[in-house]
Amino acid sequence: MPPTDIRILCVHGVGHQEVDLSWQEGWKQTVTKGLQRWNPVAQPALRFVRYEDLFEGARLDASTIAAAILRLTASGILHGLGDLLPRRRGLAELSERARWTAGMVAQWAADEQLRTRACQRVRGEVAAFDPTVVCAHSLGSLIAYDLFARDQGVLQDRTFVSLGSQIGNPFVRSVFGGRLVPLQAAHWYHLYNTGDDVFTAPIRLPGPEFEQVDTPFDLPGIGDHAALAYLGHENAVNRVWRALAPPRGPSRALARTQRALAATSRPRVRRALLVGINDYPNPDDRLEGCVNDVFEMSAVLQELGVDPTDIRVVLNERATAAGIRHRLAWLLDGAAAGDIRVFYYSGHGAQMPAYGDAGEVDHLNECLVPYDFDWTPERAFLDDQFAELYSQLPYETNFTAVFDCCHSGGMTRNGLPKARGLNPPDDIRHRSLRWDAGREMWVPRSLRLAEEKLLRSNRDRALYLGEGGATKRLGRGVSLWSDLTSFARATRTYDHRGPYMPVILQACQEKELSYEYRHGVTSYGAFTYCLTRIFRELKRGRGRLTFEGLIARVGERLQELRYAQHPVLAGPQVKREAPIPYLLGGGPTRG
Hints:
Layout: E1 7-11, H1 22-36, E2 45-49, H2 52-56, H3 62-73, H4 91-95, H5 102-110, H6 112-129, E3 133-137, H7 139-150, E4 159-163, H8 170-173, E5 187-192, E6 210-214, H9 227-231, H10 234-244, H11 250-264, E7 268-276, H12 290-303, E8 311-315, H13 321-332, E9 340-346, E10 349-355, E11 361-368, E12 381-382, H14 383-390, E13 398-404, H15 426-429, E14 433-436, E15 441-444, H16 458-465, E16 470-472, H17 484-494, E17 503-506, E18 516-519, E19 522-525, H18 526-541, H19 547-560, E20 568-570, H20 573-576, E21 589-590
Parallel strand pairs: 1-2, 1-3, 3-4, 4-5, 5-6, 7-8, 7-9, 7-21, 9-13, 11-16, 13-17
Antiparallel strand pairs: 10-11, 11-12, 14-15, 17-20, 18-19
Helix pairs in contact: 3-5, 6-7, 12-18, 13-14, 18-19
């Protein structure tokens, strides 16, 4: 293939790009320089897609911009970026750029006809130019991905390069039915800068054809979003432009085949992350059995065939919010069909009042309580943060989360068994109260359960929303949608079943407490102790049991021991009714 036959279709990002077209020459020079590092005679042909006219004709007002910024930066909605976005810069600094950043993204996300017209514009350019590579920045990457995911044939055998992209942003991803799909591309490179504050996000996709290339940079001012900084980054030059530089012949096709074969022949992976916290900083919050629980779970998992080198444990002061998130990323990294991943947590749980779109407290978030918990999102482990790690897993992955804690709050009085839940301090509690002047009393504030209408039965409502108004129950958030009709349409359009859902085993119902159990002089969680004993009984008898059968047996055992807690099972019905994968034995594994 002649060097001049590298055709790159460029789709620009947000902003007034039509005002000054000098940026096009910057793209051409930067891309050419990157390619010529590896082939001095490379002379790519670049063509640029123009789509500003589509957005100028679409509706956008101040309320749309305000709503977009709230949805992109606040924790008040189901798929808002919320607590995942570093709060390094305030909304005031973003307001001047809102029309051409969040505003354009808001238009695109809210207007289905606009999305369709934008897809048609790019489709026409692909047909006319027949590019080897499609290179798309920011909003342009949303338009390009939207087209390629709807019609996989458009991108087939071409390379897609996304940069400064909001594709993985949870708010934006809800447009795609809450899940991203692999593209039928020769390769997809996603250039990601952790310092980019224009609502960008990393992407996690399985398969050898997708690759995220970290391109960190820090420019003066806000944003760190410049296309040229991405395109000319040393990592982009060494990874992307090196791979795309001519000649592109049979050797590249062979490498692609080898990667695919390696992916299909990999052994099944079994990993577990076990977290236990006894020694909370506040002496009144300390527990006794959580560290023992972790060692008990580790022993049982090893008896079930998990190699000890594939089990990570984090205890007490090392179990900070950042530490838990970092280790969970290891747990779920590279998860593939057939893999077994287990996350176990023993410690306190809590419910945090949270703000919605209107800036008012309208729901509760369930969370785990890390060692450094201080009732702020940054030092909690919330459903949004959890969902970001698991929602893109392959559907055939076996991921189980076990929580021996309670989320209703409320430490029991002295003399009663110790419970695993925290009461909020008075300033946090105030968010959920209102003053009743007639009664001269503080009473609970009514929380807006917007998602309640989506659920078919009282059982579903309690399981996913919570009787106490917890609209983001841990591990369940991605199953709820503000508009089921749009969700169903999106899953059909993009040909998937929505976000991945783990199987969740929880020690008690939302309004109950999870208690500790004294085995002689040794403390355990009552739920964990019963769970591990039943696992051992099944192993000795070589029995097979479903998750539904398991949770029923654990519940019966707790009742026999007179504990006023009823364990909860949540997750996809097909997995709740299937045999528990850890008891199926056999098969090669690796860490």
